[in-house]
Every structure is written in structure tokens, then in C-alpha cells.
Amino acid sequence: MPGKLKAKIVAGRHLPVMDRASDLTDAFVEVKFGNTTFKTDVFPKSLNPQWNSEWFKFEVDDEDLQDEPLQITVLDHDTYSANDAIGKVYIDIDPLLCSEAATRICGWFPIYDTIHGIRGEINVLVKVDLFNDLNSFRQSSCGVKFFCTTSIPRCYRAALVHGFVEELVVNEDPEYQWIDRIRTPRASNEARQRLISLMSGELQRKIGLKVLEMGGNAVVGYLQCFDLEGESGLVVRAIGTASPNTNTHSNTAPASNACNSPSKDSKETLPSSSPPPFSPSKPCSRQSSSSDTDLSLTPKMGKTSPPPHAPHPEFPFFTLTCFPPGFLVHVGGVVSARSVKLLDRIHNPDEPETRDAWWEEIRQEIKSHAKALGCHAVVGYSESTSICEEVCILSASGTAAMLNPRFMREGCLDDASPPSCGFCHIPYDEFNMPFPAQLTYCYRCRRQKVPDVLFTTIDLPAEAAVTGKGCLIQARLCRTKKKAQGEVNATAISNLLPFMEYELHTQLMNKLKLRSMNALFGLRIQISVGENMLLGLASATGVYLSALPAPGGIQVAGKTPSDLNYDQHIATMQKRINDTITKNKELYNIHPPESTEELVGSPIPDRQRSRLFRSTSESSDELLELDLSHGKKDAFVLERGSVTMSINMFVSSGFYSCNTEVMPGIYNWTSGLQMFTSVRVYRLSNANLTNQGLNKIFTELCENLLKSLYFKLRSMIPCCLCHVNFTVAVPEEELIQMGAVRLNCVCVCGCVFVCLFVSGSGENEDQLQFSMELCADSTPSNNQPTSKPSERCSPLPEGRSRSLRSTRSMPCGAPVAVVKMTPLSFLPGTRIVKYLGIINMFFIRETTSLREEGGVSGFLHCFIAEVFAMVRAHVAALGGNAVVSYSMKECVFMENPNKNQAQCLINVSGDAVIFVRESEQEATPPLMSSGQISSTGADGTT
Amino acid sequence: MRMSVELDVFVGNTTIMDEEVYQFWLDGYTGNTTFTISHTQHPVIHKIYPIVDLSCESCFLSSPSEVNDAVKVRMEGGVLEECEASAEVLHSDTMDQYRTFQMCERLLHSPAKLANQLLFQIPPHRQAMLIERYYAFDGVFVREVLGKKLSKGTKKDLDDVSAKTGVTLKSCRRQFDNFKRVFKVVEELKGPLVENIRQHFLLSDQLARNYAAIVFFANNRFETGKKKLHYLTFQDFAFCAGQLISYWTVGAVDNMVEDMDVDLEKQFLQDLKELKILITDKDLLDQHKSLVCTALRGKTKVFNEMETNFKNLSRGLVNIAVKLTNTKDVRDFFIDLVEKFIEPCRSDKWTAGDMRLFLTHYTNSAHILDTFKHQVLWDRYMGVIKSCILKMYHD
Predict the structure, then answer these.
(1) Which of A56, A413, A694, B226 could serve as a FRET partner for A895 with CA atoms 20 to 30 Å apart?
(2) Where does the record place Low complexity bias (chain A) (predicted)?
(3) Whole-number Å distance between alpha carbons of A113 and A69
(4) DSSP structure string for B278-312
């Protein structure tokens, strides 16, 4: 009997009218946990009922506490017929299970119905009493903290990095069970929501167990995904990095992330422009059952540090993208693997081995790629899937890297921070390169060799020296394919994948050069499969790393040099390209010292100049092909269409965008913040799709979306879109869904406004000072010896008491607390004083009156707003005032206009935190308890 | 190859609203209204205007803020330049905002909800703006329905009103529904009318006063539509309503009863009959006249006209008072004031100063009449009449 859960239902407000006759509602509440249900009294004839219930007490195992959500159902009492459900609230108890996280959940929650959306609010108070658990064979992992943040959370210190943890659970999807034919859509949606909530609870618990086994106490960079495999079932998988993390002490280590999503067929993308070796895996149809394999490999702490090439723990993967200085020794480049699988029904949910095996295969492949690059670890690691009918593409990617072995052993470095160029140096053998690359001596230290370009999936390391500003670079690609079934289909997709990767890579390369930059960070390549097309979208943030050589120019060459017109045409094009490069240099403020060119160690061989071959065909969209055997230095291959596109790249002053956490080259942030989600769905009407036509459309869609965003956010200029996250999907034939572009816009001051934003501009430094105090590991210039954990006192207890006090002094009925949301791991100009727990929510919304709700746009607009509202309410109830590392993992939209129906699924996650403004640290945090009882009286029917 | 946008939404954590677009929405331009950018010769100046029926377009073009905004957009962002899709972008943005406003509309019907709802995160000053603008109304529109019963019948006639005033039907309906909603809510509340409106609908003091006037007029069904009253603006009436509410209603004596500010005090109206003596008693009338004439002699250019007309004017004012017990005559209060007093004076070319002088002495002289016993009553009556007439006496 390790725990007692207590819940109290206080009041409701703004309830919908359930009785047409009286225009009122007779509401009561059912509180359910596990199999126990309690009910409140009926509060008759009111839209603002005051139940003030007793404490409902549930005595439960902590295993259940972790798995189950608290389920609150608001109903309308009906004497003669069945009681009508008004809506539900699911509350995840998990944050209450950690001693240092939230102490209670208390506040107004929107009452949510999967058919009607939000219908009023309910005020709930939840507490948990945990008993000491002496059972060493326990199945629960209470106390393990989870963070979505892919860096070491700001008020913690990682003492030790354990390594990768992964887990995967499978189940049948209720939507596809036979019973679904006879139950109402509402019942089916609720069954699904509940199941997913259970599964993610279970998953988290199991991962927690693995972490405990490793001796860790936290998971950072926790990434959970749902694979809605339709008929085949439902897979929930998660990866993370396990770390021992005690928040008052300094001995937190980032834990390894576990990923258990199955993926295969990998190809690796190397930082050079060479085409990655593709090994498309043969499609295999198997019955898929997901299992949890014990893949978590933790480098044992305190053991011998793994020498760079020595055999390492099975999967030395890290889901982190941001590291303490000195952690990364060298970065090799992007490694990725993909595999195409045929899904089959999951026959036995208890044996999910198949999917585990899939992912294990993929991870092995990633590992071997990393090895080929001379690296022993993969950082910035992530996994994803794309499913269409029974075909599933599993993808994994990361950045091969060499880590500082001392970190694995001792947790933190006490020597001075490494040179700013260290991570650029090649980890592999110069004379035995895994791919053709142009090496030069590092432009900063002049001692080590560096590649000519560097592609990575991680954030720009804080110590990196950058010239000018960064910018968002995207490569977009569509490939048509024949409609097919089963293995034929899978084979076709497998065959296409290498070409797509190659082309995306080439596009990235060209756009990078066009902007006169030489490195990509935060690279994320998404390949989505549809019935008759494949979509590829690669996004990254381009920068000019001062340590790397200046990118070469771009040369255009035609295949038929005899034609005079052609030559002329090419010459014009060349000129335009050169002009663009010059313009971009200006725009991004890239002015590298010219003189260094002379010092380049390796003489430039002839082959460095690559040629573009242009076909003689008259069509304006013909491909220009690059002779790839040639060196990379000056290579530039693009379709002519895209050349034009990238040249006419649309630029708006005052707007910067990147998909990494912070914009390279911009340091003066203000605290103005706006997070938003934008979703677009396009219908392609012509069935005769060609690759070129599609590419053009796709590129336009992306560009238009960006333009639209700039327009909408124009009032925030000068500003920067950070962490721009594009997701594409091909939900059904000819429909492209630019799903869930989660963007975060942070105002940064342009040079003109610097003095206006005094409080914001010092932010970076302040943050550093703070982290020095608390998390020595994440401070780049940290010279002090790390004090022992016990000596460290964290400001957290202080923070809490302050917030509690403020809660009490807060006048009742205060307006709804403001909750900020951001995909970043921090809030500019503020300091995060406490992490309250992970937010991981899954919602389904369905409508049978699509037209009445304003069509698909109206429906989705409302749903997204509702999801935001529910996230905010949960954070506020935990006592928080912001969500960091927020992301919308899933946004699946289905519609049937003929039946006037639509359905949408959204999964969001993030870390609930309390922050205080840098400038007013002594002031009370803007924490408000939104759940004051007395406030309900005020908004009654007065 | 064609593609069509099937779905296009943008949702911010902090709800993004453009005041300009909000105004378009309030003014009743449908979401399908496309916004285009017209490139003028000058490279810097762009204009944004909605393509709507031409009758309305001109008013948008004439608004300088429109142009300024567009210029600002252009200079700050360069967002709209050289992108063919700019109309699309604007359209998409407009649609997003319209949807937001539509979702907010339900909340705006009871503004207190806006502060504690959870669906939209709107900063308080924006909330205030949303409410204030939502409850704002057009002077021309309100003139049409002022004093009319806020019933379904009146609502049906709104298309005529719309055609007559040039205010879109949608906007007319919103304004009408606002009147009705405020009316219904305050009908059942105790306490001062203006304060009730202000607290319940979170309006500014000025707007709350205007609503109080509208409610007051609707409740007493004052006639305001007659041709002779056309020259009066809503503000004239709102001022008079304020005077009547302050001095003639139940609330002027007792401030804790229902409808205290909406109904005129019955007893007071009854008592007004006593004033009849001022015109029925010949001595009193003559005495009153001579007192006023003595006071005014040499002080006004229209002395002679005043002297000739005194008895008529006095009869007019006192008769209005005497008849106020009839609901019908209450309704005709303003028309009577204009016909019996303002028009005769206007035809005699009285200035506003003359008017003020006359009314002051006319009121004060009655106190000196030895046989006149209703000083308090007289002051309560004449105080309001005087300020109303002064407000109404213009072209």
C-alpha cells in the first residue's frame, strides 16, 4: 500500500446548459482512479455548482499511480433517463510522485468532451501521500524525474551521464476493435485517450525502472512517440538519456535515452557532400508485436573511460542536443538510418519483440556509421516513423561524436573549457576517410584538420565561434510513386529512399553555399510516405563556423557547351548566383577574414571545381546534374527551378529564423515570447503529378507558410523564429498536411533597439552566472572545482517557499494566471527556478457537425486553442507559470466532408516550470493559484 | 496543376489579434472579404482595403490609419513586397482572426467571463479593448432605434435601418443585440443603472452612461423618430437621459430599489400637476411674467419677442409638466419640448445665451411668487427642463 491519492472536487463554472427547460444543469462529478469510483452530490440547477466535496481517498500501489491518470467526469443528473456526460478531465498524477516536484495539483481545469470540446471548468484539488517503499523488487519507479528538455535542465547539474534508455509498449488500438462498431464515437475516443494515457504512464514507469537500475534518477531529452499503426495496433515508444539527478544536489547526470522504436534500412548522411552510402533494407513483412528489449546501455560510471575507438556500451546514444562545455570533443557528422517495414497486427501485446528488433537493427546501423566516422557516440539522437496503410518507414538520426571520456567517468570537467574550435576537428583518420572530403587546417588553431562543411543534428555548442548570423535552411522534395500493395510497395519505397536522401542533401549543400555558410545545426530530415508519393523535408540552421574554411562558390555548367545560347543562359545564371551569394553575405553579416585563404594547408586540386551538367532538353525544369566523383568544394547541383527559387529567396528584414534553440549570432534577447502552432492542409487536384510539379508546389507551400508567419508576427519585429519545426504528412491521396508547425518567436533586439531592451540584452550572461552557481557542468567558462553535491545548496527550496507565500497572499478570484509556452528549453530574460514535472497529454476531438463549426479550419483552430488551454491549466494547477521544451508530437487530422465529420488527434509534451524574471528575482514569481474557491462565487449569475 | 488550401490555421499561445481586423469584423465585413494590396506609383505607399460593396470601400480608403498601417507593414517587414501571394497571406491572416473573434463572441456576451475563461490567453488590456469595441455603437444607428421597443419586431426592421444608415446588417444586429442584452440584464438588477452596466459589462464610464441612456429610452419608449427631432444627435438625448435619470427617477430619492433608474418616479409626476397653478391662476402668471421681464430688461436683444411670447412659453412648459402622468405624454416629452418651446424661440432667433438667461430667471422668479408653494417640486422639474433645453437648443 505505498500510496494514498486524495482528490477533492471544489466547484464548477461556466457549465453548459443541459436542461433546455430550465436553462440550467444539475451537475455532479464522478472521480475515478483505477477501478475505484466516487461520486459527489448533485448540485441542482446551477451552471456554477459548488460541490465542496469531501476528500475522496484512493489507496493504491505506486505502480498504478504511475500508470493511471485520475479521471474526473462531470455529468448532468437526469431523473428519468440516463445521466448525460458533460465532459472529462484526466489528471496525470506523476508530477506529485517526485518529492521535489509539485506538492499538489490545484486549480481550474477545462472540462473536455471529445465531441463538444471544452464545456466549462472544474476546480479540483489533488494530493498524494507516499509511504516509504521498502520493496526492492518493486515495479514502480517513483521519483525518477523526466525532462523533455534536450539539455541538462537549467537548475540542475549533471554529475554523470549514464546513457541511453528506451522502452516500447504495444496494444490494440481501440478504434479498430470490433466493439467500436457498436459504441458511440465518444466512448471510442475516450477509450483511446485513456488507453494512451495508460500506455504512456506504463512506458514512463518502465523507463524509470531502467534508469534506477543504472543508478540514475532522471531522464533528460525524453522523447515519446505514438505510432498509430491502424489495424496493426498502437505503439508507444520512448527514448531518453538517463541521468542521476537530484535537484538540490549537484550530482545529476544526464541519463541515457532509451528509444525503442524499431527502424531499419539505414543510410548515413555524412558531413561531406558525398552521397551517403545507402543500404535500403529489404522490406520484411512480419507480424509486429512490440516488446521492450533491454537495450539500455549505460556506460558504467566510475569505470574505465572508453577510449575513442574502444568498444563501447551497446548504444552510446544521447538524445541531448545541448551539452556542457567540454563534453563534445569532436563531431563527425550526421548519421542516419532508415528502414521500410510492413506492419502486421500485433498479436500479443506482451511480446513486442518484433518492433524492438526493428529498432535495434537500426540502432546497430547507426552505431556502425558512427564508428565509420571514427566516433564512439551518437548525440542529438532521435527516432521517428511514418506510416501509410501497412507500410512503415522507421528513421533514426543523430550526430556521430567523440565525447570526453572523463565526463562519462566523473561527470564533470574541472579543467578549463576547451578551445572553441575543438568540436570541428575531424575525429576520423585523415588518410583513411570514410568518404571523400576536403580537409584543411582549422582556421582558428591551425593545428588540426577540419572538414569543409559540417552537418549536425545538435544545437550549436555554446563555445563555438561563429561569423555573422545563422538562418533557417530547408530542402524540400517530392517523389511520386506508383500505388502498390504489400511488399511491392515497400520495395518501391526502399528504392526511392536513397535518391531522396541524396537529393535533399544536395539541396541543403547548395542552399548552404548560396548563403555562404559552412555548417548546419539541428538538421532534421523527415520523410513521409503517402499512397502515391513520398515527401522529404529537411530543416536545419545554417551558420558560418569561423573554424571551417569559407565555402567555395557555385559553378554552373551545361552538358552541351557548344550551344551559344546555352552558354549565355548559364552565364546569366552564374551571375545571379554570385550576386545572391554576395547579397547573402551582407544579409547574414558574414565577413570572414580573407587573408586566411593563403594558409590553407592542402593545395586545392583540380577536381575541386565541380561542374554542373545541364541536359539539352528544352523544358525549363530539367535537372542539372553534378558529377559527383569530383571534389566538393565548389559543387552545386540544383534543379533549375530550385536554383531560381533559392535565389529569389525571400528575405524580410527584422526577421530571422532558425530551428535550433538560439539563433547563432544574435545575443540580445528580450523576454517577449509568442509560441504558436500553424497547420495547413492542401489538396492537390490534378492527378497527373510529376516530380517537378510537385517539388515546385511543395516549395511554394513552405515558403508561403513562412511568409504568412512573418506577416502575422510583424508586430513583434525585430524578432526571430526559433525552433521552427516543420512537419509534413501525406494523410491520404493528394493531400499534403503541413502539420503542426510549432514555432517559437522570440523578439530579439536589432542593433537599433539595443538600449530599449536593456533588461533583456544581458540575459545570456546572467544566465551563465546563474548556471555557474548551480550547474557547473553547463557553464562554458567554469574554472572552479566542482563542489561536492552535499555542499551545494540549491535555490529551489527558497523558490518554493516564496511561491507558496505568494499563493496565499494572492487575492482570491485573481484572473487566470498567465502561462507561457515555448519549445525552447529556457525563457529569455528569466530564470527557471523549478521543474514541476513532465506534461504529456493526448487528446482526440471529433465532430459530426463540421460545417456548423466553421469547417475544417474552424474545427482545428478551436481544437488547438483548447489543447493550449488544457496544457496551460495543468501547468497552472501544478503551480507553474510556463512550459518549456513544449512540442506537439503528433497532429493527425482526418475528415469526411460528405458526412460532415472530422477527427483530430493531438499529442503534446513539455516541462512545466516556475520561472522568475531576471530583473525581479526577489519579487514573487508570477504564480497564482487559479483555484480559489471563493472566486467561483464572483463569477456566478450575478 | 492546381492545389487548394483545405485547411489553414494559426493559433498563438497568446491570442494574436489585430485591432484593425477586429474593427472590420465588428463592422460586419465577412471573413470572405479579401484584402488586396494596391501598388501605387510611389514605391513605398501601399494601401490595404477590403473588397466589399463599393458603397463602403470609400470609407476605408479615406481612413489614414489604413494607409499608415500598410506603409508600416511595408517598411518594417517588407513582408508584402514582391510576393505574389500577399493577397493570400492577408486572406489567411484575416480568416484566422475572424475565427478567433467568432469564438470570442460568446464570451463577449458576458464580458466577465472573458477574464476567467481558459480558452484564450489574452492580456488584460486587450480584453478591455475587445469588450469596449464590441459594445461600441454607431451614432447613426442608435438614433434609429432609440426609444423603440427592443423587440423582435424592431429587429426585423433592421435591414431598413441598415439600408438607411449604411451600417452593415451584421453590425446593426450586433449593436441591437448588445442593447437588448444590456437591457435584459440591468432590468432585474438593483442599484444605480450606470454602475450596474459598468460592472456587469466591464465598460468604460462613458460607454456605460450611453448604454444607460439607451436602456432608459427603450424602457420609457420616448419618441425620437419624428421629423422635428431629427436634428438632435444621440449625444443630445444621452445627456437628457442622464438628467432625467439623475433627478426624475425613483433612484433620485431611493437608491436601493429595482428599476430605480429606469422608471420615472410616479409620485413626482403626480405632484407635477400642482404646477398647473402657474398658468391657471391669472395673477400668478402676470406676476411671474413681470418678474422675469424686469430681470431681463436690457439684457437681451429678443426682449420684446420674449415679452410677447411669455405666456405661451410658460403655458407650454407647465403643460408638459402637468401631462406627464400619461404614459403617452411621457413618450412625447421631447417632441413637446421642441414644439412648445424650442421652435417658438428659434423662430424668434433667440441665442443660446438668451435661452439660458430666460430659463434661469424664469425658474428663479417663481420662488419669489408669494402664493406659489411648490418650490422644491419646481426646482426639480425646471432644473432638468433647463439643462435639457439648453442641450437641445441648437441647429
Answers:
(1) A694
(2) 281-298
(3) 16
(4) HHHSHHHHHHHHHHHHHHHTTT-TTHHHHHHHHHH
